[in-house]
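Section 4.2 – Deliverable D4.2 (structural model, holo form)

The reporting period included a commitment to supply a predicted holo structure for the target in complex with adenosine monophosphate. Inputs used:
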Amino acid sequence: MAHYKHILLAADFSDHGHHVANKAKELAVANQAQLSIVHIVDNLPITDATYGPIIPFDGDLSEQIMEAARKRISTLAEKLDIVEDKQWVEVGSPKFEIVRIADENEIDLIVVGSHGRHGLALLLGSTANGVLHNAHCDVLAVRLKND
Ligand code: AMP
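Output (structure tokens):
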């Protein structure tokens, strides 16, 4: 089995996310690897489904969304024992940003769910598929129960 040194968990905060996160953690422990986590704010959606209630009375909505995303990633990172400088929240296209972060941080395994926020209908989610095609390292697509 390949001995991975630095594993990147792509977290979308979907209902299935904890299963993907647990798998990434197990792999990190088994490989004695560093575990990092990334979340991409996908073109700043005007919805609170992913980040919880956001009430933009004033100020910059995009900054509020980023702040909500940072809180969510830090809660998940705490559960997984991931230190702050191994947590990234970026804005853009998830499939490209996940790969960019992986390239810039010498990641040798990216862990994604086989589907996420875009639902069961797509089976291998568009993000998982995009990461698989663009990545320069190994990618594990964690098969989710309903696939
Ligand atoms: P999807 O393409 O939305 O079905 O998502 C498939 C998998 O890609 C998810 O289970 C996550 O691991 C990952 N993913 C999707 N969207 C994001 C995102 N915005 N940030 C980080 N990872 C993501």
